[in-house]
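Predict both folds.
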Amino acid sequence: MADLLAEYDAHLRTAAEMQGVLEVQRLGPLWIALLGGGRLFVTYDELDEPETRVAEVAAPVSERRSIHYAEWKTRTHDDTPGLETALSSAGFVAAEPESVMLLGEASKFDRQPTATRRERSLAD
């Protein structure tokens, strides 16, 4: 399973998630994308100080009237203690988990890797 997760991380995170975005900003380990329609997308590879990083994004997002929706991508295989609490405290709500589809003999794995979106609506 570790090999598959390493492949996932190497090929489907950060820069790969930024295809076709209007604007990309780097803030430490964060990749912050401004998408059309006032949407913001946040992802990372390795996350240090989750509480600090969430605060660095949440405050400016709340002040920017052009952003109506923010999504922070989390992954079940990441070791990010405090991230879920920090996101909840900043007003993000967990969305439905997203599954990674595997081709082949997936039954040999203990669990399937998933990604969860944490969403925050900024509409008045």
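Second protein follows, with its predicted structure tokens after the sequence.
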Amino acid sequence: MIRRPAADISRTRPAQLNAAAQAGSGGGMASSDISVKALRTRLERAIQTPADPTSDFDANPEVTAPDLPLREAGVLAAFHEDDGRLYLTKRAATMRHHPGQIALPGGKVDPGDADQIAAALREAHEEIALDPAQLEVIGTLPPHRTVTQFRITPVVGIIRGPFSPVAEPGEVAEVFTLPFDHIANPGNYRLEGRVWRGSWRAYRVAPYGPYYLWGATARILLGLAQRLSV
């Protein structure tokens, strides 16, 4: 049986989660004051900082991850050179997996993809119309395992030049950005919890304004924020 979360976890019940999603951390999508040189340097150092793989199970150590095959996937954390803003998507409500959730552009590795980086770039092109030629790939973060049996490789890159995203109809409801300062601050990520499949589960959240960043995406970005803070 799963224990209730420790005292430092916000015990947010499902009925309260919608309100929490709107609360955010205040303010609009303000830009950050960071140069492209400083952005690249910080991201390169973060990539080079040793770190272990992460998992949706990290916040629930009493839960044993099932011994099942994992499907490979890649997601893209693309920061713009102008101010470090990060591009994210809100998944369409009609999607089979994680409808309506905030996500990094990306998806599973298809047979035609050379690797997880290729999958992340292909999916970003499909989902938000980002030309791979416009992206400077900095590197990858350790893989993240999800409760849905994906092993996600986060790819970190910098978008060079003007970019106007276009949401893919049917898959992406909205493309938006969050400021680098919010993403890069580990203090913005907290633990909350809810009942999932009959058991209490804790997970990371980092809400900002109307955007409720949580789950695997929040855990992946927390790992990056922790390495940016070293």
